[in-house]
Amino acid sequence: MPFDCSSASGLTVCVTGAGGFIASWIVKLLLEKGYTVKGTLRNPDDPKNAHLKELEGAKERLTLWKTDLLDYESLKAAIDGCDGVIHTASPVTDDPELMVEPAVDGTKNVIIAAAETKVRRVVFTSSIGAVYMDPNRGPDVVVDESCWSDLEFCKNTKNWYCYGKAVAEQAAWEVAEEKGVDLVVVNPVLVLGPLLQPNVNASVVHVLKYLTGSAKTYANSVQAYVHVRDVALAHILVLETPSASGRYLCAEAVLHRGDVVQILAKLFPEYPIPTMCSDEKNPRAKPYKFSNQKLKDLGLEFTPVKQCLYETVKSLQEKGVLPIPTQQEEPVRIQS
Ligand SMILES: NC(=O)c1ccc[n+]([C@@H]2O[C@H](COP(=O)([O-])OP(=O)(O)OC[C@H]3O[C@@H](n4cnc5c(N)ncnc54)[C@H](OP(=O)(O)O)[C@@H]3O)[C@@H](O)[C@H]2O)c1
Questions:
Q1: Is 80 exceeded by the pLDDT of residue 156?
Q2: Once rounded to an integer, what is the mean pLDDT over residues 170-194?
Q3: 212-to-167, 208, 322 alpha-carbon distances in Å
Q4: What's the distance, Cα to Cα, between the start and end of the chain in Å?
Q5: Is the pTM of this model over 0.85?
Q6: For a substitution probing ligand 1, which of 65, 92, 195 has the most ligand atoms within 8 Å of its CB?
Q7: What is the CATH number of the domain that holds 295?
Q8: Where is the NAD-dependent epimerase/dehydratase domain (predicted)?
Q9: Nearest CA residue ID for atom 37, ligand 1
């Protein structure tokens, strides 16, 4: 039976790694839509996960399950009885020992447990890391869902995070096909936006380092960005849309680091934002072309990257990670 979301009430969705940056937003939006949510966590009692219990609807419809991705039985218990699974838990590291096995075997475990418990659809959070790491792609090629990272290149350049995500996604497709699981994949680019969790996750550090003075220069490279709420919405859209299939590249814009620091400096001139590029010899790296049309066709309207950067910094201020400037001037107007 396909996933039928004509009424979210009465439907249960399991979200793995529920306390993480992206997963917390997925849990929040699912609860707001009326779903019952089973969140898996390695340690539900860790204070870093306490924010989940404060979400609207959590008291009535959120349960937390102590689960490790490599512990099949605990995973199956959490997934049992669910209509859908959103598998977001993954190590986020370039340490091959910590990255590859939990990403790959954990993902296989989720799909097998979903098959055994007759889950109707699984959504897997993959990454742009499984898509764009290909040195042979021409500069005019549009990066879209048909692109796959070159595993040998990832290994040779020690990009173990990208390698792990690409191999995990491949494993997800293989096991889903073998077990007859309805799988849809979301491939987000670097995710920014307000944090629901108390600690700062890896992708937000990407911006934080430009505000604390720890980065004295910026790199001569480009990066694609997307807002965390849009990423969470994308997961729910592909879960709920019966015709959704395959991969969905989730990206709003590609910027050079020079553009990022310029936007930050305009919005937040009070911080020691770098003004110099670390590489003054080579030509400025050019943004690559990409397509987010598949998600747009499902109705997703992406938040502009400027707004996303603004909300990220405001959130870091609210969390006390960044000092709030004492002399607040006129609020800055954001122009997209
Ligand atoms: N943020 C980005 O820019 C970005 C971009 C593309 C894709 N993604 C993908 O999005 C997902 C979430 O990333 P995030 O940015 O939200 O990172 P995050 O905040 O670090 O969350 C990762 C989650 O995975 C859990 N986890 C890690 N290893 C685990 C294991 N062995 N067993 C069970 N749970 C485990 C963590 O739990 P603990 O708290 O117990 O460690 C945490 O809840 C990942 O799959 C990541 O690859 C992220």
A1: yes
A2: 98
A3: 35, 6, 7
A4: 43
A5: yes
A6: 92
A7: 3.40.50.720
A8: 13-245
A9: 17
